[in-house]
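job 3f2a | input accepted
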Amino acid sequence: MTTIEKTAEALRGKGYEVSCFETGEEAAQYLDGKIDGYTVGFGDSETLLTLGMFDRLSKHNDVHDPMHRSEGKGFYSTARDCLTTEIFLTSVNGIAETGEMVNIDGTGNRVAGSLYGHRKVYFVVGRNKIAPTLQEAAHRARNVAAPMNAARHNYKTPCAVTQDRCHHCKSPDRICNAQVIYWRKMNHMDMEVVLIDEDLGF
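job 3f2a | predicted structure (202 res):
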């Protein structure tokens, strides 16, 4: 059994719907076909940016994304709009082969949108996010994903500068303010994990 297959089996055992794809393009086509005629919100995700999901979905959905703001709309206003959409898409910073997922957030809009209030939530995850255990997935989230995300946004945090690990900083740009562990699918929520056998995002 491959790592993707093992992780998918564990996620299904925790209540998630799971779809697996060999390439990001196949996953993007799948999502483009499934999400049609809805209001859609995005959580900040390099994976979704790489797959071009905003451009794809905007052609036939009403899409709100803090990374693609309308003229005159600020980040916080757009992020609030994302919390009330029918569909929410994001990724995770780490996922264990045993089925737990981990996200770290600085502002809170990404994890808030992934937990409650939408008709359906999609987690779109590349194979590079998978770790053998929850402990290793949490370590990856804080010491691999967080520094890379901070650097992507040009934040002046120690981890963004050194690109090596979390420094437990007190920087005003700090993005490690909350960590969420998804032990299982949330009650009364339709949640699907889209696993991709490519390295995507951080």
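job 3f2a | The mean pLDDT is 94.
job 3f2a | closed
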